[in-house]
Inverse folding.
């Protein structure tokens, strides 16, 4: 537990939150979720593609996976363009695609995320496709649009005779609009969830023919049985995770990237001990776009401001904005004009956007900003733009023409740590480098911010391209290399660093600059850990059905029960939460004559605490109950109950064999006692549950389900109590479903964490977080 005296910031909301050392860190825009990320292709990141774009063509040769797993791809007839801060453009032909051989890290759960824009909404266009294996229907999930404006994930598996649709959008898909679309598959609950622009669109149960899945092939821009279904539009970012992301994590990823396509604002709200507290703040504006055409100047870095002790008022929301990166000057494939980077603000702090680089036409001089843009190398000598005092430095000037009237080299954009380099005269020397950035470890990792973009090269005499200027501190965009036979675009600045884009090359095409990088606001303060009270109940097992004859099904076992009166949580460290699903009851007496054993529930989780799912009740004729948090009761004739998990629940009861007479099913185990045994004369109740008042009301959790023809544990089953389902009566009666589980987190005082449904009234003086929707979630202390 951290010990502090006096006024201080103890917690806050806003942005993505993480724990680093002894600090709680908030980042705006949010950081991308990296846990489970096994494929990440991003057109806006300079490391994810070949930005050079050889002479006369903007077609890609390869795309690079920046997740660290090396799932790289090859691009066929696919353009890279500077539109919307960088995009992969597909031409609606059979050769326009990106292929990735396999993503072997996916073996069960998965999440797929894509940002895209359709040029036209027409029928059956495959945006992306994940194949499982060979077969008549060999698709994993495939995202498809149609002319009605529908957007659907089609899921199946080898050997399936048809696809199953998971809707993502209905009658509203618009051409020219950028969408964020996500599909989540939970192999434990057998549930798909689709999201559009971070809002949940649909949850649906659909079962792959195998629980173990692996993506043997991933294709962007087309897909299985493509025919004429080739995608016409842009893809900006594509990710695959080998786990199920929660709704909170999907929203975090949406917040992380939306700054490229729209203005960004947010709030930071502190809770302080006392009337005020202090925080450490880094505020970086967006970098300027690189200049276009002949030897464009590098974009200036966004202004950078750092405050080690900024005072805030308790519970007073702080408004903030983060500046977008400036647009690159572009003349190829997509034409756009250069812009300066946008300002970033935090309360009274304002960092000024970086200046754009100079271009062939007006303005040839670099533009002033947080740091100034570099001057163009075209025609007469040009000057770099001025920086803002205390935030950044000036851009370098463009070189004068040489005696043979060969134009000069472009200047580099200014950086937060140094001025941009001047471009020399003529074509014999490289252009100016971008000014250095500054390094901070406020995010938990020492990183450079606000490096200037490198100047573009001019060279009409060399068959090989003359190198472009280097980007400042490795985060500014590199300038385009130019020669008589080769031209290279300027490189984009590294996202979330506020760095300038590189300037364009000189003679040969293309002559496009690089986009400036968006800025960032990072806030941190000493973390204060605390204790919580926790209740976890897993999903209850479903009751077994009665057999074809007069044998009743066994009751489902209760979900595992865990209660901790005191558990320490680490402030700012994300805690994985899962609410267990109730298992389905057995259906009728199919398969005849035995009946149908129920289904187990699913586990509940809070961090490292895992409550085990309730076992299923056995079918009426000779089927044992299964084991779980508490065991399911045995079916009606000579069937044993399943065992429970020590400390979480008890075993299900047994049922005797009494020949061909009626025999009742045994009771499922409960959290407090075993399920009752049954015979042809004795009905069986489920095991007792445990009464707990963590929510402020006394509720009995984790009761076992009664055997068929027995009395119910407490009348109508109560959801989110992890109760086992009742067994079905003989002669084909269906078993009842188990109820979903629950996760409850409680601590003393005002709200300090985020996640679930928050209640501050049911237990005066305490804050309660209730998680009741089955599936994954997140609690951030």
């Amino acid at each position: 537990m951290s010990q502090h005296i006096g006024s201080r910031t103890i917690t806050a909301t806003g942005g993505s939150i993480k724990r680093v050392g002894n600090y709680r860190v908030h980042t705006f825009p949010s950081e991308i979720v990296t846990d489970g990320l096994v494929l990440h292709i991003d057109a806006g990141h300079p490391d994810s593609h070949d930005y050079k774009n050889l002479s006369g063509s903007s077609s890609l040769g390869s795309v690079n996976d920046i997740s660290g797993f090396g799932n790289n791809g090859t691009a066929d007839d696919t353009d890279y363009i500077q539109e919307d801060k960088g995009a992969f453009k597909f031409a609606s032909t059979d050769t326009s695609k990106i292929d990735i051989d396999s993503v072997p890290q996916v073996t069960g759960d998965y999440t797929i995320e894509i940002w895209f824009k359709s040029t036209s909404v027409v029928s059956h266009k495959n945006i992306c496709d994940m194949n499982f294996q060979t077969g008549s229907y060999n698709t994993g999930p495939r995202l498809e649009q149609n002319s009605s404006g529908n957007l659907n994930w089609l899921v199946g598996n080898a050997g399936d005779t048809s696809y199953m649709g998971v809707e993502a959008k209905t009658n509203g898909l618009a051409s020219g609009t950028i969408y964020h679309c996500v599909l989540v598959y939970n192999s434990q609950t057998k549930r798909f969830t689709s999201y559009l622009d971070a809002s949940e669109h649909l949850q649906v149960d659909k079962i792959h023919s195998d629980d173990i899945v692996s993506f043997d092939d991933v294709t962007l821009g087309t897909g299985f049985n493509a025919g004429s279904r080739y995608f016409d539009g842009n893809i900006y970012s594509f990710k695959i995770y080998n786990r199920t992301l929660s709704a909170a994590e999907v929203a975090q990823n949406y917040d992380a990237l939306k700054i490229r396509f729209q203005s960004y604002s947010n709030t930071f709200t502190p809770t302080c001990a006392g009337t005020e507290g202090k925080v450490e703040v880094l505020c970086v504006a967006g970098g300027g776009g690189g200049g276009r055409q002949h030897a464009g100047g590098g974009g200036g870095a966004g202004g950078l401001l750092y405050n080690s002790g900024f005072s805030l008022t308790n519970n007073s929301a702080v408004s903030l904005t983060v500046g977008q990166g400036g647009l690159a000057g572009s003349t190829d494939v997509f034409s756009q004009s250069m812009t300066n980077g946008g300002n970033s603000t935090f309360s009274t702090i304002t960092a000024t956007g970086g200046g754009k680089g100079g271009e062939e036409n007006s303005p040839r001089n670099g533009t002033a900003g947080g740091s100034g843009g570099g001057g163009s190398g075209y025609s007469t000598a040009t000057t770099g733009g001025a920086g803002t005092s205390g935030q950044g430095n000036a851009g370098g000037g463009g070189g004068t023409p040489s005696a043979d009237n060969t134009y000069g080299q472009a200047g580099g954009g200014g950086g937060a740590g140094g001025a941009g380099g001047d471009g020399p005269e003529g074509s014999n020397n490289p252009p100016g480098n971008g000014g250095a950035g500054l390094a901070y470890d406020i995010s938990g990792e020492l990183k450079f911010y606000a490096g200037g973009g490198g100047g573009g090269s001019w060279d009409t005499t060399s068959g090989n391209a003359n190198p472009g200027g280097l980007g400042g501190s490795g985060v500014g965009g590199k300038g385009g290399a130019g020669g008589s036979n080769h031209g290279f675009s300027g490189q984009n600045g590294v996202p979330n660093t506020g760095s300038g884009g590189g300037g364009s090359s000189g003679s040969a095409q293309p002559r496009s600059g690089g986009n400036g990088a968006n800025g960032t606001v990072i806030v941190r303060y000493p973390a204060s850990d605390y204790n919580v009270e926790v209740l976890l109940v897993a999903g209850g097992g479903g009751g077994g059905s009665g057999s074809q004859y007069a044998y009743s099904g066994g009751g489902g076992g209760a979900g595992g029960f865990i209660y901790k009166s005191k558990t320490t949580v680490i402030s700012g460290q994300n805690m994985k939460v899962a609410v267990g699903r109730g298992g389905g009851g057995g259906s009728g007496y199919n398969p005849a004559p035995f009946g149908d054993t129920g289904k187990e529930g699913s586990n509940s989780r809070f961090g490292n605490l895992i409550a085990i799912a309730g076992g299923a009740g056995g079918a009426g004729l000779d089927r044992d109950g299964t084991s779980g948090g508490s065991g399911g009761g045995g079916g009606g004739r000579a069937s044993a109950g399943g065992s429970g998990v020590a400390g979480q629940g008890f075993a299900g009861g047994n049922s005797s064999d009494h020949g061909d007479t009626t025999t009742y099913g045994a009771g499922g185990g409960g959290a407090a006692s075993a399920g009752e045994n049954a015979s042809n004369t004795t009905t069986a109740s489920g095991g007792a549950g445990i009464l707990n008042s963590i929510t402020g009301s006394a509720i009995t959790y984790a009761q076992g389900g009664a055997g068929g023809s027995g009395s119910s544990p407490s009348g109508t089953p109560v959801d989110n109590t992890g109760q086992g389902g009742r067994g079905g009566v003989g002669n084909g009666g269906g078993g009842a479903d188990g109820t979903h589980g629950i996760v409850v987190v409680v601590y003393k005082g005002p709200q300090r964490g985020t996640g679930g449904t928050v209640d501050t009234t049911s237990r005066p003086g305490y804050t309660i977080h209730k998680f009741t929707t089955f599936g994954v979630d997140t609690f951030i202390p």
User: Anything to note?
Assistant: The longest strand covers residues 232-241. Residues 53-57 have pLDDT under 50 and may be disordered. The two ends are 13 Å apart (CA to CA).
